[in-house]
Structure formats: structure tokens, C-alpha cells
Design a protein that fits this description.
It is globular, with a radius of gyration of 13 Å. The chain is α+β, with helices and mostly antiparallel strands. It has a single domain, classed as Jelly Rolls (Sandwich), CATH 2.60.120. The chain has a four-stranded antiparallel sheet, with no helix packed on it. A two-stranded antiparallel ribbon has the order 2-5. A hairpin with a 2-residue loop joins strand 3 and strand 4. Helix content is about 20%, strand content about 35%. The relative contact order is 0.32.
């Protein structure tokens, strides 16, 4: 078993397509590393949702809420099954 698999087995979670991983405005107390799949990062402005990025395996997100101690600045949504 590789290190990544060991870490995922202990701490990982599987998200279904369209499942919200974290929501803009929520308190951020964790960050995420994409093991498999993809995550769409979105932000709402003027009642319109805009896609800022689509992250893939090996990318990470959510760290800014921890560093800044501010609410999440964007939402993260699973694109397909994502680990």
C-alpha cells in the first residue's frame, strides 16, 4: 500500500457527483487534497454562480480559510465521484 492510500484509508472521504464538499461563507476548519476525481470551485455574486476553477487529482483547496481564519471564500463541489 502506498502512502497516499494509507492516508486516504485513515482520513479520506468519498463524495458523490454534485455533492457540496464545503460551502462559501461556512467556517473553515479543514483543508482538502484530491486523491481521485475533480472538484469545481464556485463563487456567488449578484445571484449568479461562477466557476472559478476545476481542480484535479493532487490539487488541494480550503487552506485559505484556515490561514486567514475567515469564512470560506468559495464553494467546492464534487465533479463525478471524488475522493
Amino acid at each position: 500500500m502506498e502512502l497516499g492510500e494509507e492516508v486516504f484509508e485513515k482520513y479520506g472521504k468519498v463524495y458523490k457527483n454534485g455533492e457540496v464538499i464545503c460551502k462559501e461563507g461556512d467556517k473553515g476548519d479543514s483543508m482538502y487534497i484530491i486523491y481521485e476525481g475533480a472538484v469545481k470551485i464556485t463563487k456567488r455574486a449578484h445571484d449568479k454562480e461562477t466557476t472559478l476553477a476545476v481542480l484535479k487529482e493532487g490539487d488541494f483547496f480550503g487552506e485559505m480559510a484556515i490561514i486567514d481564519r475567515e469564512p470560506r471564500s468559495a464553494s467546492a463541489i464534487a465533479e463525478g465521484e471524488t475522493k
